[in-house]
Amino acid sequence: MPSSLLWAVDVYGRVYSLSTAGQQWEHCRDAHLEFKRVTAVQQCCWSIACDHNIYLYVHASEVPIRYQEETYENQRWNPVDGFSDRLLPSDRWQWSDITGLKHQPLGDFQLPSENWEWEADWYIDENFGGEPTEKGGWTYAIDFPATYTKDKKWNSCVRRRRWIRYRRYKAQDTWVKIPSEQTESLPDPFNDITCGGWEITEEPRGCLALWAVSLQGKVWFRCDINHHNPEGSVWEEVPVPGEVVQISCGPGDLVWAVLWEGHLLVREGVGRDCLKGSSWVTVESPSPGVGVVHVAVGVNVVWAVTKDHKVWFRRGVNSHNPCGSGWIGMVGEMVMINVGLSDQVWAIGFEDRAVYFRQGVTASELSGKAWKVVSVPRDSERSHSSASASSLQSAGCFFGGEVRLQSQASMLSDADAETERAGGEVVPTPEIGDAPKPRIPKVTSDSFISELVSDREGQISRRDVPPAGPSIPEEDHPEKELEDRASPAQVLSPSQSGGVDPQWSNVDLEEAQTHLTSGPGGDAAETSSLSSVATYNLALEEPYGLDEPPKWAWVSGGGCLVECHTQLNWFNSSTSTALNSSMQAMSLSITPAQTAAWRKQIFEQLSERSKREMENFMHYEQAIEQSVWVKKGTMQWWRDWKPHKWVDVQFALEQFSGVEGNKDGILFIYYTFNDEKKYLHMFINEVTILVPVLNDSKHTFAIYTAERTKQRWPMRLAAATELEMHDWLALLSVSCCDSRGIQGPPSKQAIWSVTCKGDIFVSEPTKELEASPYPTPCAQMFWRQVGGHLRIIESNSLGVVWGIGYDHTAWVHTGGYGGGFFQGLASSTDNIYTQTDVKSVYIYENQRWNPVTGYTNRGLPTDRYMWSNASGLKECTKNNTKPPSPNWTWVSDWTIDYAVPGGTDREGWQYAADFPASYHGNKTLKDFVRRRRWARKCKLTTTGPWQEVPPIPLSDITILPCGPKSTVEQVSLWAISNKGDILCRLGVTSLTPGGSSWLHVGTDQPFKSISIGAVHQVWAIAKDGSAFYRGSVSAQNPAGDCWYHIPSPTGQKLKQVSVGRTSVYTVDENGNLWYRHGVTPSYPQGSSWEHISNNVRKVSVGPLDQVWVIADKVQGSHSLSCGTVCRRLGVLPMEPKGHSWDYGIGGGWDHITVRGNAMEAPRIVMPSLTDNQTATRPLQTSNQPEMNGNPVGC
Amino acid sequence: MADDKDVLRDVWFGRIPACFTLSPEETTEREAEPYYLLLPRVSYLTLVTDKVKKHFLRVMKAEDSTEMWFEYEGTPLKWHYPIGVLFDLHASNTALPWNVTVHFKNFPEHDLLHCTSNSVIEAHFMSCIKEADALKHKGQVINDMQKKDHKQLWMGLQNDKFDQFWAMNRKLMEYPTDEGGFRYIPFRMYQTMGERPFIQKLFRPVSPEGHTLTLGDLLKELFPAAICAEDEPKRFQVMIHGIEPLLETPIQWLSEHLSHPDNFLHISIIPAPSD
């Protein structure tokens, strides 16, 4: 889990952030101003500063924010000049956008704001739809607008070419002011701001909703904020039926606002087409007569704080019912509340102004259990006296320039004043110095409302006070003004009442006035708690003793990811440092990694003891004879013969010690057939793999032997409970490993594979595996499972292993083994971490058109289910669809999926003439059926020897393959982000496999596959299916210099590439495997593609140029398997293409990497037998679709 | 650095070479040869001495084949203590093999429990495990196990199957990470001279202030004499499985790794050899 940040503002307006991995508040020193409010999301943080401008802090990312500007140069042919820029009067502009309607000369492109910079100058794009064009990049057509081709024909009268230029957002990790461009429509300053909405739509990427409230109670929406435009473009006013004081926007479509009167407004109609929503609905305050002062919303929750500091939770809130159904009063008194990621709740206490975390908030218990105070120290700050001075200054300037000047002129900083007093030199000053200025409530939530009050007050009653103006809050009068208006006795009162948490009574205008005039009497008692603390604070030599708990004003958890398994070190750490350190010492001493003296001593003594007590007596008889140990159980077995069905069986494992002390065992299955008791057995040392099988109702696994792999027919068993299955799997797995003498972590040479269930398997290669001409058949390879869940895994022979989860998270292998259900003896104790993965489950809603009612869910009797899976064969309703296995839990509701291949209309529908047919995103006259895809996210939490590599989500990785005795210091590792950016990892060595940072490698289009060869040849496949070769990559120049476009095989779109020592193989979208011909050291791009095989899903070429693939379908003697590991036979240095296939484990395999196996086979010189083999025999395909032999269930 | 799991193996596979000789009081038909055997430290005498019994019965009259019992240098050996404890307590600084005298007559009713069959040992063993789990987890773990799981623990011990035993026993060794250890540490502290057979008290692995408690802390509370000041000569040896762990060893770690199969940490306190 990568660390994320909780943001907060203290009462002095200083911004702090607290990392989930950290234990102290880090002062955001970059902020030269004081801030009133912050609202954070994962990628950035928005804020309102005391100058009322909006500021943005974009976190630096290793993938830069860059935007491609494009324009087209258009030319027409005429007989005199040939192609020239002399166009016909009816033609488009000479420089235009792609449609030709907009005039766009190169010089007209301006940077959107000063926070952008150009990456380079304009250049011509020579890539045309995945194919390289001639130099110059021209594409030709008969006329504008028409279909363009890359070849000039006899009738080509016009041509155009595309110019591109990148601009890059440079203001990262710093606060930048968002220019308020519309001076005329923004009359009053902002008072509240909230950011959210990132879950509403995927398009455009990084789309955010930013809402703001002005001091006059108007609501504004910032348009067009997305990844490529982090600052957004304009403010649009959203009409409101009243005056809003505060607003909150959740990650999804919830937007709630607090009205001046204490009621709430709920925005309706927020959706992917309309981030702003359409209308407001009013919700009453939870307690009559006591208005709401603060609201915070998440995905499915709404929390509110009323005037009396009570906290309320809104029941029944969700996307369909944004208003919810009722209020529940909660424990605790808070001044503000904030809902962060996963609906976690943060608040600031009324009494102590501490940041609180709501403990125990889960999807099933959204209201949580208890408030827990976040007590961590702030980073020690030597310069705080100056900081406080400046904060005081600016505190004075909160509401306008004039006041600032005044306060600067008339005020000492409080720190100074205190020092003087401490020195006994109290100079009687006009401002009666014994009332230090606790300017605390400046930025507290309710103080803003009181500012608002004072604002009005000014308008109503103090228009005659010239310099203060309407915007001076009453708690911050510069002394001068006070002198003008009040007696010295009263001077105390406002400054002290400044220390008060300004009670809601202030909202009542009349009462506020009384406060001002009635002197210290009124709420002097109430002041005490806060102002006295503040006074104490300021009176110290160290104005901010670190042991003094900080006072917070605002907190934002919108970027802070906390989950139930997250270990937070935020609680109680500052209260007892002794305890803390001792706890640390304990946790350290319990980890075996630590070499404590006592542990060493125990190890030494134990081995001494064994020596002393046993060494000379080994000839003695053992008291207990080694006997056979049997574990028995009941299971269900998928009967081998027809009709296939689950039958109850007795299952037993008999283990015994072999002659050399190694253990072996036999597996028995006792069943009854025709009332006759029978059994079948399997030797443990013949088992090649144990595979958990995807089944949404049973806990099933499959056992293979080499023979059963050939048959494509494993022994399938189902246990009664998940726990029982895991116990058996762990036991059988240990037993299998014991019988083969395998233990400990996987070797560096290991071959890794992943099933479509995300389970990870590893096989230890022998020298004979790649022997030629008689290699070990790959059906005999033994695979053992390693904990964790991945979609892709890549390795090299230096032991660097990386994986990518279904949610695109990158993981690096820690060197451990076990995890998951392998606990205790089958797992390493350290190097095992929590791993999570998230994937979507899809179902389809199908409808048929009829002339009377249009599209309805009444289909023809012959139609598919109206709610089905993709094939339509299985009924899948929202209610009956379960997560893929009991290990997964739902983490979202069903939502319409708009990102379906082929496109959708605005409601997500795809149309077709009939089921099943090709679907398209817009309705035509010929369409009689339509469907739309619904997605629901589910999440898996497991453990394994994997550590997350934050923060960039990846879609592909490749690691430099190394020779057998290679000593490479820096291991080249390239990756593709899930947005298609190409990245190069720096600092990867065999000791630090995780590396240090990413280097972004610029490209003109998004990519989907990448591979690096043994001599740093980098090949990549773009999303449009074209291949690229990266020039000049070397150990010294790890990122290379430029891309060479390689045309793909005619008519094919490539999807994956793998480069070994010298061989380059690609797979296209139609399952063809291609070999790159003519690759030489001097011409590494090669010359042409040669077809090797069809029926291939994925290829992995190893450091010996060995070729392994995942075959689409393989027919065995009993059944068919989809997704099977296959190895190319006959691959030799001079025959890199090989001649035929060898079939390994399968049914449900998704990925394999042999790039760690650099073990050269023993050289046996034998007459070649390849002549007898059928040359280039195709990888067999099935014509006998028996889906039984598909054990992993894809 | 060796793994902590190796400790479990070393503990399990600890063996004591023993030489069984028949007591001269026994009447035999012919001279009885001594019998040599490697005894598992973690097992029980009566559980692993079927061979011994068979061996001596061959030279004895059938009518004398009553219950067999053992004695070392005049001390009857309690079969219900693990073998390693008996050895550490009575014979730790003597020459090997361990000379155990075998008796059939004159069963010392005051010193020993009768052990008529292995089911008696099993009942004793299981009651120890249950008591230990009551201390560690309020008995929740052992009670959640099924009968066959209990059987697996016992069979693991009886047949000397480390994997079989630990596949189940690891569940008994789990604890919530945020608590830093078991509720109480199941331990028994033995000494040869004491009036009581052993000391057993409630003792938590972590102090109320959150400090990890060590073997030293335990001794300080229960047997301060075992802790000697730096300059003093050592008066006692604190022995677990034939070794003397350092006093700063965390008690929780010891409980997890050096407990006997009955889940108790058996600590023998013996006078230091005077040499």
Number of helices of chain A: 12
Number of strands of chain B: 9
Oligomeric state of the chains present here: heterodimer
Largest sheet of chain B: 5 strands, mixed
Q: If you had to describe this structure to a student in words, what would you say it looks like?
A:
The complex is a heterodimer of chains A (1194) and B (275). Chain A is mostly beta strands. Chain A is built from 12 helices and 71 strands. In chain A, strand 68 and strand 69 form a beta hairpin. The longest helix of chain A has 19 residues. Chain A starts with a strand and ends in a 41-residue tail after the last strand. Chain B is globular. The model of chain B has no long low-confidence stretch (mean pLDDT 86). The chains are: A mainly beta (1194), B alpha+beta (275). Chains A and B meet through helix 9, helix 10, strand 33 and helix 12 of A and helix 1, strand 1, strand 2, helix 6 and helix 7 of B.
Strands, helices and their partners?
The complex is a heterodimer of chains A (1194) and B (275).
Chain A: E1 5-10, E2 15-19, E3 26-27, E4 35-40, E5 44-49, E6 54-58, E7 66-78, E8 82-84, E9 95-96, E10 116-118, E11 123-124, E12 127-128, E13 131-132, E14 139-141, E15 158-169, E16 175-177, E17 190-196, E18 208-214, E19 219-225, E20 235-238, E21 244-249, E22 255-259, E23 264-268, E24 279-283, E25 292-297, E26 302-306, E27 310-315, E28 326-339, E29 345-349, E30 355-359, E31 370-373, H1 384-396, H2 401-410, H3 414-422, H4 445-461, H5 479-485, H6 488-499, H7 509-517, H8 524-539, E32 552-556, H9 577-590, H10 597-614, E33 621-622, E34 629-638, E35 646-657, E36 663-673, E37 676-683, E38 687-693, E39 699-705, H11 706-711, E40 715-719, H12 722-740, E41 751-755, E42 760-763, E43 783-786, E44 792-795, E45 801-804, E46 810-813, E47 833-850, E48 854-856, E49 867-868, E50 888-890, E51 895-897, E52 909-912, E53 929-944, E54 946-948, E55 954-959, E56 973-977, E57 982-986, E58 997-1001, E59 1007-1012, E60 1018-1022, E61 1027-1031, E62 1042-1046, E63 1054-1059, E64 1064-1068, E65 1073-1077, E66 1088-1093, E67 1096-1101, E68 1107-1115, ...
Antiparallel strand pairs in A: 1-2, 1-32, 2-3, 4-5, 5-6, 6-16, 7-8, 7-9, 7-15, 10-15, 11-15, 12-13, 14-15, 17-18, 18-19, 19-20, 21-22, 22-23, 23-24, 25-26, 26-27, 27-28, 28-29, 29-30, 30-31, 34-35, 34-40, 35-36, 36-37, 38-39, 39-40, 41-42, 41-71, 42-43, 44-45, 45-46, 46-54, 47-48, 47-49, 47-53, ...
Helix pairs in contact in A: 1-2, 6-8
Chain B: H1 4-12, E1 15-22, E2 35-40, H2 50-57, E3 69-72, E4 75-76, H3 83-91, E5 98-103, H4 118-137, H5 140-144, H6 147-158, H7 162-172, E6 187-191, E7 198-199, H8 215-222, E8 236-239, H9 251-257, E9 265-271
Helix pairs in contact in B: 6-7
